[in-house]
Structure formats: C-alpha cells, structure tokens
Request: fold
Amino acid sequence: MTTVTDNKLAIIIPAMNESGSIASVLSDITEHFKCTVIVVDDASTDNTAQIARGLGACVLSHAINLGAWRATQTGIRYALKKGYERVITCDADGQHPAHSLVTLLENAPLENHCTIGACTSRGSLGRHIAWRLFKRLSGVNVRDITSGLRLYTHPAMQVLASYQATMFEYQDVGVLLMLKHLKMRCSEVSVCMKQREDGISRIFHSWLAVFKYLLYTFILSMTKLGPQAVDKYHKQLTAGAELD
Reply:
C-alpha cells in the first residue's frame, strides 16, 4: 500500500451532515496519507464536526451554510495562511477512495496548476449530455466538469482564495473558466470513484436543484467571464488586492 508523506500538502473535505460517512472517509485517507486533513463543516446539524475532530482532522466550522464551493474556499484560504503549497479537494460522502487521491497526486503534471480526478463512466445519460453541452459552450477542455476531486497548486490556490472566486456557486465551470482565463494550466487524470455511501447529493437532491444548477451553469458558460472582466480580475489578482 502506498503511503504519501508530504508536510506541504493539505487535503480539504467540505462536509455538511456527513456523520454517516465521514469516519470511513477519514480512516481511508489517513491509511494512505501522512499530511494535514482539513474538514470544513458547513453548518452541519449532526455530529460531523465532532467525529472529524475526534479522528484528528483539522475542523473549520461555518456558522451558517455557505455551500460546498465556499466551504472548499474556506479550506483553501486556511491552507494558504498556513503555508501549504498544494491542496487536494475531495468529497465527504465516500465517492473518492483514498487510492484515487494517490493516483491523482502521482500522475498530476508538475507544470499544471489544476489537475482533476476524472471518472467519466459515472453519472446518468443526462449528466453526460450536460457535460458535453457545457464543455462546448464554455470552451473548457475538461471531460468531467463536476468532479470534486482536484489538485490545486499554490498559484491556483491564490486565485481561488480571491474575492472574485467567492461569487461561484459550484466547483465546476466557473472555477475552471477563471483558471483558464488567467492562463492557469489544467488537465485530468483518470481515477476510480464509488457510489455515494450515505445521504443524498447536495446539488442533485431534487429536480428544482437540478434545474437551478443547469440554469446557473448555462448562463455562466455563455458569458465566459468576458475579456474586460478577465483583464480586471487579472490586474487585481496579480496585485494581490483581492486576498483577505
């Protein structure tokens, strides 16, 4: 079994009401990694935070629910302040086994700023149609745009900790568009994923939620952040004005 030891790497896990799966997720990760694990508790009403803290994770708790992307951003900001050079983001529901995190880390191109753990065999026909549509509309050359399993290097972390990145609702097209327009290099590594161990999807839990996601992503894909907006973001980002 491969064990990764890296004191400059942090693993970020956004979690809301994941008490049924968080223990097994953390146990799996600590068998494969010797690094800091950050669980961002997004205002859970169960004992997700207590379980994670009891298993040795660094737990950051939101007072109110902000959503999975902003929980991830909280973890990225914390990692930056603590001096970490790379972060892996993964889900708290058991879909991303630790060996897939190892695969992602070991196969990520050194020159890239973002590497996505892609599993295109998962999901329904409708999800695959949506992937192809948003890829074509946005110009983002990524097969698995909804994967929460990602590796970000320090330059990408700085961009994603920005005030501008807070406007996004999801960690997919918006994040990838921002990285693309700021000339950040992104790629994918094929990994294995599992079915969710417990609970329901936070994005696709109802038809209304699916519609909201599709509409939001469609609009974002069509805008492509515009040349003037990109120039403005680039100037602010390079000046460091947006960082808290």
Summary: The chain has one domain: 4-239. Residues 4-239 form a domain with the Spore Coat Polysaccharide Biosynthesis Protein SpsA; Chain A fold (CATH 3.90.550.10). The radius of gyration is 17 Å.
